[in-house]
Amino acid sequence: MSFLRSRLGLAVAAVLAGLMVTVGGVAASGTAAAAPSSSAAEYKIPKNLKTHRVTASALRFRAAPAGWVKGLLYRGDRVFIRESYVGSPWVKVVVVGKSRSGIAHETRGWVHRSYLKR
User: Fold this and answer.
1) Which of 24, 27, 51, 77 counts the highest number of beta carbons within 10 A?
2) Could you tell me which of 78, 107, 75, 76 has the C-alpha nearest to residue 94?
3) Whole-number Å distance between alpha carbons of 29 and 31
4) Coil, strand, or helix at residue 69?
5) C-alpha to C-alpha distance for 12 and 6, rounded to whole angstroms
6) What angle is formed at CA 9 by the lines to CA 7 and CA 15, rounded to 5 degrees?
7) Dist CA 23 CA 35 (whole Å)
8) What does residue 68 show for φ and ψ, rounded to 5 degrees?
9) What is the pLDDT of residues 62-73, one digit of tens each?
10) pTM flag (> 0.85)
11) Of 58, 73, 68, 67, whose CA–CA distance to 107 is shortest?
């Protein structure tokens, strides 16, 4: 398993290095590369949206439903629910303001719905 992981890591590093050369200013053909478009801008939270507060003493902030833990949210931290699915206890949230544990403003992740309150 570790052999596969190391091979995969090398392949990903090679692809990223190739992208950096292309995006970094000069493409392989010697012409200037186009700057990345700003149309894929980060999701901005409108000021008037209703947010939810974390009610748990410590809530795991995950990369995916039941995925690896990105950090912790503490009681009183505020989040905006971005996506939810009928029948699923997991919701995709965006952190509003910097969390008490240091998770940056507008970071996206998943939490269990039962630990949020309006």
Assistant:
1) 77
2) 107
3) 6
4) strand
5) 10
6) 105
7) 7
8) -70, 150
9) 999 989 999 999
10) no
11) 73
